[in-house]
Write a structure and sequence with these properties.
The protein is mainly β and 289 residues long. The chain is built from 2 helices and 20 strands.
Length: 289
């Protein structure tokens, strides 16, 4: 919406379940004495501003535009409310004034406000106008390579207030409220201190040699008890319910060790049946299995 004369610019109001601005813009502008229009977005779920999308409110009057010598009309405000989250991924929310007070920006979401490679700015480029204020109030605020700036030139800088249960900001993110010729604004972050730098360990640059931590397969086998087995053949129903089953003959037991492993065998008479017990003591181990 655009205001050229003395009247105020109209406001933009949008309400939907989800609002997405991708690569486009939504803006109000005044270049006269009238106040710039507000931008109001209400989403029951999410608001997403991505891929260069922008929401802006500007006052572009260069100097006095009426007989009273007053400055141009004040910039409109931007108010965004979401039922879940507000995400800026390569997006911008801004208010800008040339010779007037900057507009305010308010973001409300119960869960998260996430900025990735994005900017939220309220700026005054000249004159005596004060910078606009920024208010952000979710549970999580996450800034990744992003900036929140409320600067002014001749007037005082704007104030930035962030109220969050968890506030995380990358080293490349900026939160700033300054003034070139007047008092800088205040930055107030109401959140528990979340300094995770001391809890993150630096990973080694070299790959881990797993062989130095694992026992060899053959060594692991040799440290255990010697292998043993019993050679038995089911030749019929045992004499007793819990008795031994009929076995191979001793010749069969000896034949089972024909591979060269020494065998120690004994034969027992159990209920008239010949049972062979063999204990194999291998000299070498097959490490390929």
């Amino acid at each position: 919406m655009l205001s050229v004369g003395e009247g105020n610019a109209g406001s933009l109001n949008f309400s939907a379940d989800n609002i997405t601005i991708s690569g486009g813009s939504m803006s109000t502008t005044t270049i006269g004495d009238g106040k710039g229009g507000d931008v109001v977005l209400n989403a029951t779920q999410n608001v997403n501003i991505t891929n260069g999308g922008s929401v802006s409110a500007d006052s572009l009057a260069m100097a006095a535009t009426d007989a009273t010598g007053g400055v141009g009309g004040d910039t409109g405000s931007i108010n965004i409310t979401a039922g879940n989250s507000i995400t800026l991924d390569g997006g911008t929310i801004s208010t800008r004034a040339v010779a007037a007070d900057g507009g305010n920006i308010s973001l409300f979401a119960p869960n998260i406000v996430y900025l990735n490679n994005s900017q939220i700015t309220t700026s005054v480029e000249s004159g005596i106008g004060g910078g606009g204020n920024v208010l952000i109030d979710p549970q999580f605020v996450i800034l990744n390579n992003s900036s929140i700036i409320a600067n002014a030139y001749g007037g005082p800088g704007g104030n930035i207030t962030i109220v969050a249960s968890n506030y995380l900001s990358s080293a490349t993110s900026i939160v700033q409220a300054s003034s070139a010729l007047s008092t800088p604004g205040t930055i107030r972050i109401v959140s528990p201190e979340n300094n995770i730098e001391s809890t993150i360990a630096q990973l080694a640059s070299e790959f881990l040699d797993a062989s130095s931590l694992l026992r060899g397969l053959c060594s692991a086998r040799r440290t255990g008890a010697a292998s043993s087995f019993t050679v038995a053949n089911r030749g019929g129903v045992p004499v007793e319910a819990d008795g031994y089953l009929p076995s191979f003959s001793m010749g069969a037991a000896n034949g089972s060790a024909s591979a060269g492993a020494p065998v120690r065998a004994n034969a027992l008479d159990v209920g008239g049946e010949r049972v062979a017990l063999a204990l194999v003591m291998p000299d070498t181990l097959d490490c390929t299995r």
